[in-house]
Amino acid sequence: MKKKCDVLIIGAGGAGLTAALNAKKNGADVIVLTKEYPTRSQTCMAQGGINAALGNISEDSVEEHINNTLKSAHGEADEKAVRFMCGEAINTVEWLDSIGVCFSRTKDAKIAQRTLGGASSPRACYAQDYTGLKILHTLYDKCLEEEIEIEADKYLLDLLKDKSGRVCAAEILDIRSGELIVYEANAVVLASGGYSRVYAKNSTNSTASTGDGIAVAKRAGAELVGMEFVQFHPTALKNSSILISESARGEGGYLLNTKMERFTNELAPRDEVSRAINAQILKGEDIFLDIRHLGEEFIERSLPQERKLAQLYENVDLVHELIPIKPVAHYTMGGIVVDHTSQTTLEGLFACGECANHRVHGANRLGGNSLLEIVVFGKEAGVHAAKFAKNVSSTTPVIRENSVVKKIESYSNQLDFYAKRQLIGDIFYENVGIVRKREELLFARQEIIDIKENIHHFGVSDKSKIYNTNRVEFIEFLNILDVCESIVEGALKREKSCGSHYMIEVA
Amino acid sequence: MKVSIQRENGFVEYDVALKDTTLLELLSEIKTKQDNTLAFSSGCRSSVCGSCSMRVNESEVLACSYKVQDGDKIEPLQNVEVLRDLVVDMNRALTYNTKAKAWLVKSDKCVNLNHEDEKVNALQSDCILCGSCYSSCPVYAVNPDFLGPFALTRVWKYVSDKREDHKQTKITEIQTNGVWECTLCNNCTVVCPQNISSKADIEKLRMKSAQYGFMDPNFGFFDGSFPSSSIFMDQS
Questions:
Q1: For the structural domain made of A234-328, what CATH number should be given?
Q2: Interface predicted TM-score (ipTM)
Q3: Chain B residue with minimum CA distance to A241
Q4: What predicted TM-score, i.e. pTM, was given to this entire model?
């Protein structure tokens, strides 16, 4: 089966939907594909806010926003890109407001802002505790108004090129029917999200954050950069890795060890706090977040979601009890290399959102900059992909005989990939995690090499064509392996510590 | 603990050595350790993505926020096509957002919202489109053209927004198979994981409709007759 459009967008989170709106606005005929539904992406989980130097609460400036972002990036950001993003921030929030995002407001009828870690003033515009959810749903409503075609349950398998090497199609698995569909397009935009779930259950992310787009782009020959930079959030629930928002510490929460001692500055950047917690855990301590002193009224008003989730997953009432926590993978700074037009190193292929590396976060992302990035560069990717699509003549992809779906049919399924998936997550958490050592990185790399060599012993036990999630999860597992390889390669190449990549040098 | 799950050929019982756990964790345990063929949807695990809505003992829950009990009977949502096991096709319900034109149409004039304006639709904009309300709706069950709870809540979200410039058009769009079909049974309110009451939003939309001169077709006949409830009328 075949389908055609000018611009094909893979992923329907904040970046993908913004790209779609802007590609359409620039005259392109657009199709958006998602392996879930458009409002179920990782974007909906962002709580904190979206940064813009509006100065609604106290004085602020774009220059300060740039400085804070560059500082957090530890020299790994591209200053030009950071300047562009921070400069666009005010317009971006105004645009979101104009399409109906229900931001929280101040008493004097301005968009409310709060301070997140590493920011010199209250800069994050928020919508209660649901900033990402409300932005995502409003973008979705806007896409409906613009009659943008969004197809659910469509899973990216591979990118296809024409004879000259230009990306001009994607091979897609229709999860519902089990059929393969080739979507031909003059430009393809990847907006497929990050890879925090390579850490399996040691991640705050949605189960869908398996780095599919990054792995597919890599297999097609696109360059990746900064894959070793993974942000670990200090406070996730110990058993379930459910996020407890940074505002719990921002508002005065303490971190305690088993001896009930505080051991770090709770307001330091995420990577520093995560390392301090990790050091305690390695000493055998259990770590707790204590917000009892903030009072029930505050907790009900500011952290109602967290109270519910802590009760559900840990059986603790955070109004009266300590919250057991640990740091887990939360955001991935690395991704596909893009230029100033969001085009990757492959002609015809664009990327935006967490799967791309626009080099605005460098070695450590600031809270409130990820929602900003997806809208600012989602727009850029959409505009430039539409322009590109208009200026090239359509071409035909070289179809390969052996799709991944076909290939895995012959795999023997003697070994259980689900168990291996969790094992890799644990190995990466321990060895390619918060603190890294060369020999541990080598061990993790060898583990991935061994699994890849034996991949034909794994496989799919469900032989049905219809809505076969066993098969989709196995293909995700293959992507996880490719992504893991890049993370550990990047980490091995970078011998010195930098931001979230912390190396212990052996004397 | 033992649970039974509705699958293609009826209920299948599973015995899982877990306790004090969410239904979603239990389903993942079955999927990864006992039966790779079980199909269900999941995402965020924290009740904001709306993927894992299903029914337990005949009422709608999010699997990620429900503590599973021994003997639970687990089924897919109803009033919707089942794609496989616990996975349903949400596309039909989602088209009602388009039909109801649930988006902001804004004029160029500058409107600043204050703290009070924010509260007007803060709750309605918490909707996660999980579809629990459509599953529980007795009107949607018999009238598949009914715009339904989440689409109407979304219309109210925009109609109540001071930035919206085409309130009357929006109200006009929801007169047929819309606000007047609802029986105010309140099922949608009871099952909503986000504590939204579509029923209450529909009542507010009715008041707004009356302000624009629309009348309840069940009562507004000139001869004073009382037609049978429109939900049972031929919709062709």
A1: 3.90.700.10
A2: 0.96
A3: B45
A4: 0.96
